[in-house]
C-alpha cells in the first residue's frame, strides 16, 4: 500500500496559531541543531563511554540555565529546570553508538574506530540514531528555556548511557535518579524508526517493546574419538536435542495469544571431524511482554536443558549450566494506555491524522521501560519518529525492496525531519503536561 504523504506546506495551513509559533521556533533552531547533529554523528561513542556526548548535552543545558549534574549512573547527565509549581516531567535521550562500521557513504559518515574491551577492532556508528535523540533533546531544552512563561513545573532532562547494553536506565536509577532529583509524574522519549516515512510519529498504547533476556547454555559432554561414539556422551547431539525441544516452549507451552520468542542465535562446539567434543555452547535471546511469560520461558529453558541431559544419560555433575545474563536484561516497555491515547490525540491535532499513526508492538528491546516500572504511578510514553527519506521509502515500496533497519551500517535517517518532528512533538507534549496556572 502506498502511504499518503502530507507536505509541510499543506500542514502549515491547518495548524492552529500556537502550533505555528512552536513550529517556527523549531525551524529557526534547525541550522544550529543540524550542526550539533553532524558533530554527534561523526563522533559516536560506545556504551559506557559517552563522555564527549554527555559533555555536549551538559554544556548546552548549563548555557540555558538548567541545573546540571554529571556522572549519574556512569556517564549519565541530569539537567533540571524548576519553573514554578506544577508537575515533574522527565524527557530522556540515550547517547550510545554501536560497534558498526558505517557504510552509508555519506559525507558526514563516522570514521571512528576503536578496540573494544574484548580486543575486537571495530568501527563505531550511531546506527540506532541516538544522535538524533540527543540533538532533539538539545532542541527541546532550548525551546523549553525560551518559553518559560508558557509552562509551570519542573523539567528533568536526562542523557542516558548504555541503552544498547540494556544497562544505562538501571544504572541511573540505582544512582539515585528518583531520590537525588525530583521523581517525575510523566516520562517521555522518542526513538527514530527505520520502517516508516520521515516525519511520521508512531505510537503504541500498552506494551510497545519486549522483555529481552540473554541466556547462555553450556552443554557438557564426555568427549572421545568420533569412531567410538559408544564411549562418549556427545554434547552436539544433546545440544541439538535441547535446541529442538526449546521450540516447543513457544509453540506448546505459551498461550497463542501471548507474545514470546526463543531464538538460539549461536551454537558452538567441536574442533575437528573425528573428535567428539566435551562441550557445546548455546546463546539465546528470549523475549516476551509480561513478567509471567518471561518467568515461564526462563524456567522452561532450564527445565528442558536439564531434562534432555537426563534423557541422554548424563551424570548429575555434568548437567548443562544455564546462565541468564542479569545485567543485560531489558524489561518490556509499557506505554501507559490512556496517557498514550491522550498524547496521540494531541499530536494528531498538531501534526494531522496522516502523520500520527498507531503502530503494532515489536519484540525489540529498549530500556526506557525501566523509568516507568520503577513506580507504577509514573505515566510513561515513548513514541517512534519515522526517519526514512520519503523518496527512498516510495522507491523501496515500488521495487518491493526492504529498507535498512536500525543497527544496519546503511541506516541513514532523514535527520532534519526526525530532529524537527521530535523536537516539536516532545516540546509540545511537555508544555501541555505543565500548563501555566
Ligand atoms: Zn539500538
Ligand atoms: Zn536505540
Secondary-structure map with pairings?
Elements: H1 8-14, H2 17-42, H3 51-63, E1 67-69, E2 77-83, E3 88-94, E4 113-115, E5 121-123, H4 130-146, E6 153-160, H5 168-174, E7 186-197, E8 201-203, E9 206-209, E10 211-220, E11 224-225, H6 235-253, E12 260-269, E13 275-276, E14 279-288, H7 291-311, E15 321-324, E16 333-335, H8 337-351, E17 356-358, H9 369-373, E18 379-388, H10 390-399, H11 415-433
Parallel strand pairs: 3-6, 3-7, 7-18, 8-17
Antiparallel strand pairs: 1-2, 2-6, 4-5, 8-18, 9-16, 10-14, 10-15, 11-13, 12-14
Helix pairs in contact: 2-4, 2-11, 3-4, 4-11, 6-7
Bound molecules: zinc ion (2 copies).
Spatial sequence of strands, sheet with the most strands: 1-2-6-3-7-18-8-17
Report the count of strand segments: 18
Q: Summarize the helix and strand pattern as letters.
A: HHHEEEEEHEHEEEEEHEEEHEEHEHEHH
Question: What is the gyration radius calculated from CA atoms?
Answer: 24 Å
Give the low-pLDDT segments. 1-17
Which kinds of small molecule does this entry bind, naming each only once? zinc ion
> How helical, in percent, are the residues?
25-40%
Strand content: 15-25%
The main β sheet shows up as:
8 strands, mixed
Category from helices, strands and their pairing? alpha+beta
**Alpha plus pi helix count:** 11
Shape by Cα distribution:
elongated
Roughly what is the average pLDDT, rounded to an integer? Answer: 94
Distance between the termini: 46 Å
